[in-house]
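Task card 7
Instruction: Convert sequence to structure tokens.
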Amino acid sequence: MCDEDPNSNLFDQLGEFFKFYNKQFIPAHSLLVSKIDTMPQDIKGQVLQIFKYLSNVFDEDVVSQEAKGQHIFHAERALNDITVVCYKYVLGSIIGETSQFSAKIDKIGKAKLQYCIDTDLDTYNKTYKLFDRHRKQAVEIEECTTESSNVNTIKIIKTYGDAIKIGSELTNYMNFDKLESLEIAGSQTTEIVNNQREMIDHLKQLTSKKQQIFYIIVGVVLTTILAAVIDETAVINAISDITTNWTP
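Output:
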């Protein structure tokens, strides 16, 4: 009967380490790279620390199997932590994108949301609420990791993964190009309305009824043309308000 290989336990530990590395860390890291331009320094530092732990396993000065096992254990813990950190950064990026979109929608008016998304309004609102719920769950489980070291890393990763999946679906619905077009249209609408107000003020100063009628006709024609290419409802309502309250 052959004696048991004293290194077998170390090989098992290393096997588990690289299994987690391939199945959990690599997908998390790849997702992070797709979301941000510059890798955070804390992640770079942790990666170096992980491989420092692993290199100690093969250091001839580290003789005991127990010491080698401890280095692998620390490498595993560090790899777990850095994987979760990657998902935190990804989720943070998605939250930032959704917050920016919502803030812009609030600025131009929520009634225009339907024109800025690539899905129907009902689907968007349901996805938004679902993402908000999963985002909060991720925050809660993060607080648990701060208070206790017994939280299962795979459970944490799954919680973040679910939030990220739904968040990515939500951001795919957001069309910033359409939103920007409406922002520009809103700005142009304001300028048109202001110009029309100035024209009305000028009309009040004219003594000739013919001059007043002429400028009103010109103004209406220009307004109709501009409304057709910019924001018909907003322009027409604004001009209607001006002309209704105007008295020669």
